[in-house]
Specification:
With 354 residues, this protein is an alpha/beta fold. It contains 11 helices and 10 strands. A 7-stranded parallel beta sheet has the order 3-2-1-4-5-6-9, with helices on both faces. Helix 6 links the parallel strand 7 and strand 8.
């Protein structure tokens, strides 16, 4: 594979070894940009450089930032960049406190924005924040017949603090994304920077990763249920993360890239990335059809229950529409069955190693 012509511009992606970030990085590189990524350690990004990014290695720089909350942590990373995609945020569901989830998410946002304003330079055109569809609504307080609008936010801080430990992880994830995005918009309103700021809020993200973790146990919360079904480790249909609105990771990357290249249109905008409803039961049904030889180890659950054949939204149910993003980009979302099967195809490598 030959390198595409370079456009000479450098794009910064924080948390480059993350699932979404690493796929986005490949899109950025294949479009002709140089890539600068941050990671807690350079070692954590080494596999990307030697595998998925190998052909682009001369155009990739990794900057080590062990602690994103330290003032000035991003000062060097932002220098001279054309755009910033801030994707780094806590996603470890073993975390149980406000200070572990929310504080680093908020402080890293404010820190990188401050660094951008003072150290990036006049060529910086856009800042794209990776948010989440969980920030846009409180499912207990549905509005507009359950339709979720891109101008809504979910719970306030007071509703998150003091949560019981057994329910804290998912709710604190929601809190971290909500409070972080609110912090971005507050900072923008206060300082009125010249750069375009927007957010991308995906639902539950599936689709093939560009770099598998060394072991399946290290898979993130959106891919782990798919692996548990595919591998036969799940005795029953697992409870999926979020509320089952799905989007393929490649579509999330496309939206990020479009936002970056159309900063004149995306300033102050929020884009929901959601293709429809894809609960774990649907994933199990898809996998049994695609891998009949594994049918006996993939749990059956209640086939066909809880989703439509086209994986669209049910009428009068909560909906997290991604039409604004799809229409802006001019794309059709990757269907759920394609996303799941192509994810499983990558997971076959784990089976080969056992």
């Amino acid at each position: 594979m030959s390198l595409p012509p370079s456009n000479g511009k450098t794009v910064l992606i924080t948390g480059i070894n993350g699932y979404i970030a690493s796929v986005l990085g490949l899109h950025v590189l294949s479009t002709g940009y140089n890539l600068r990524g941050t990671a807690r350690s350079k070692a954590s990004a080494a596999a990307l450089l030697s595998d998925a990014y190998a052909v682009y290695a001369s155009r990739v720089q990794v900057i080590e930032i062990p602690d994103m909350t330290i003032p000035g942590a991003f000062d060097e990373a932002v220098k001279g960049v054309f755009a910033i995609h801030h994707t780094a945020s806590p996603t470890q569901f073993s975390l149980r406190s406000w200070d572990e989830w929310v504080t680093p998410a908020v402080e890293s946002c404010i820190g990188i924005l401050k660094s951008a304003a003072t150290h990036a330079g006049p060529q910086l055109g856009s800042f794209i924040f990776l948010s989440s569809a969980v920030v846009t609504s409180d499912p207990r307080r549905l509005r507009n017949n359950g339709r979720v609008g891109s101008d809504q936010f979910s719970f306030e801080e007071a509703q998150h603090r003091g949560l019981k430990p057994q329910v804290a992880a998912a709710r604190l994830y929601q809190a971290s994304k909500t409070m972080a995005e609110k912090a971005v918009w507050r900072w923008k309103d206060e300082y009125q920077p010249s750069l375009s700021i927007c957010s991308v809020s995906p639902g539950v993200v599936t689709g093939p990763p560009v770099q598998l973790p060394a072991t399946a146990s290290a898979l993130g919360p959106s891919l782990r249920p798919v692996w548990e079904l595919f591998s036969g480790k799940a005795a029953d249909i697992p409870t999926g993360p979020g509320t089952n609105e799905f989007v393929d990771v490649r579509d999330v990357a496309k939206i990020h890239l479009w936002c970056m290249e159309h900063s004149d249109q995306t300033a102050d905008q929020r884009y929901i990335a959601s293709a429809g409803l894809g609960p774990p039961q649907a994933a199990a049904d898809i996998l049994r059809r695609a891998y009949p030889e594994r049918e006996s180890i993939i749990p059956r659950g209640k086939p066909g229950e809880g989703y439509r054949p086209d994986f669209g939204f049910f009428v009068n149910n909560r909906k997290c529409y991604g039409t604004k993003a799809a229409e802006a980009v001019g794309m059709q979302y990757i269907p759920y069955d394609q996303s799941i099967v192509e994810t499983a195809k990558v997971f076959e490598r784990y089976l080969e190693s056992t």
